[in-house]
Design brief:
Layout: E1 4-5, E2 13-19, E3 25-31, E4 34-40, E5 43-50, H1 55-65, E6 75-81, E7 86-91, H2 92-97, E8 114-117, E9 123-126, E10 144-145, H3 146-158, H4 162-166, E11 170-176, E12 185-191, H5 194-208, E13 215-219, H6 225-233, E14 238-241, H7 247-256, E15 259-265, E16 268-273, E17 278-279
Parallel strand pairs: 1-6, 4-7, 10-17, 13-14, 14-15
Antiparallel strand pairs: 2-3, 4-5, 6-7, 8-9, 11-12, 11-13, 15-16
Active site: 120 (cysteine persulfide intermediate)
Function: Required for formate dehydrogenase (FDH) activity. Acts as a sulfur carrier protein that transfers sulfur from IscS to the molybdenum cofactor prior to its insertion into FDH.
Main location: cytoplasm
């Protein structure tokens, strides 16, 4: 069955007039921010605030990272309509039989428990955040070399972005850690919240059939429990940030064996967890 999906991306920035410190009127670009209400089999789940650059991937990735769906074949269609500021996701079962996702016994009570996270604004995680973590086993086949880390940091710094034009966004990148293109950016998503950006990356990975075991996930945002759990659920063994971390993020990363690095700017980084998957190369360091 072919996934039926809109291509409803909208402009990430708009132009407005502002007054600078010299009293001059100037044209500036500011980041977009649009409400997008998510419906699954006609049931309203929540409203996401988004740039609108990857609305379909965002909706799919959100469902994946909330553990509502386990395989993309469960989805028949993803339809974004900006006139109603909504995205309607229809399951294959509902399309074929008329039986809603919410009528199945295993889905009863999924929305009863939710956690408000430290996501920009207010992120929400439904169900038990720690559920199923014991079943996650991350691969150790592809260690991260220090030189590849520096390559990723440099490529992300140079990448064209909404942040450079308008600010007020977080960015996430999925990077290669195998073959001849180690350190290359495979996917890059920005949004008004870092949790949106990671969800959109997850959605794009599913849409494009991208595997996770030889990838590095980069985020401009802080390494919270939510970010670590989502990265682990996506099967990505290495998590890198230019920002810092929280205690719960650290504890979960250590428990799961994620290789997690933060404060990554210039030639500086801090390796917090997963040391066995990281290969330090003194000749590439700041004192080389």
């Amino acid at each position: 069955m072919t996934l039926k999906i809109t291509q409803a991306a909208i402009a990430s920035t708009i132009e407005i007039q502002a007054t600078n410190e010299r009293g001059e009127r100037v044209s500036v670009q500011i980041s977009g921010e649009h409400p997008l209400t998510l419906y699954l089999d006609k049931k309203e789940l929540l409203t996401l605030m988004t740039l609108g650059a990857q609305p379909e991937a965002l909706a799919l990735g959100w469902l994946i990272n909330q553990r509502f769906i386990k395989h993309i074949s469960e989805i028949d269609s993803i339809q974004v309509d900006w006139e109603t500021e909504s995205v309607a996701i229809t399951t294959s079962r509902f399309k074929q039989t008329g039986q809603s996702y919410w009528e199945l016994p295993e889905h009863t009570g999924l929305l009863d428990k939710k956690t408000t996270t430290t996501g920009c604004g207010q992120g929400t995680v439904f169900g038990d955040m720690m559920q199923d973590l014991e079943s996650i086993h991350l691969p150790t086949t592809f260690p991260l070399n220090e030189s590849v880390l520096y390559t990723i940091m440099d490529k992300v710094r140079k990448h064209e972005s909404v942040y450079k034009t308008a600010g007020a966004v977080h960015g996430c990148a999925l990077c290669s850690n195998s073959g001849e293109n180690r350190g290359e950016i495979l996917l890059f998503v920005e949004d008004v919240g870092r949790h949106n950006a990671v969800d959109a990356i997850a959605g794009l990975m599913w849409m494009k059939g991208i595997t996770a075991e030889d990838k590095v996930f980069y985020t401009t945002g802080r390494l919270t429990s939510e970010m670590v759990i989502k990265c682990a659920q996506m099967g990505i063994p290495v998590l890198v940030s230019r920002s810092g971390l929280t205690q719960m993020g650290y504890d979960i990363a250590r428990k799961l064996g994620i290789t997690m690095l933060g404060r990554c700017q210039g030639k500086h980084y801090l390796l917090y967890t997963g040391e066995s998957r990281f290969v330090q190369e003194p000749q590439t360091g700041i004192y080389a």
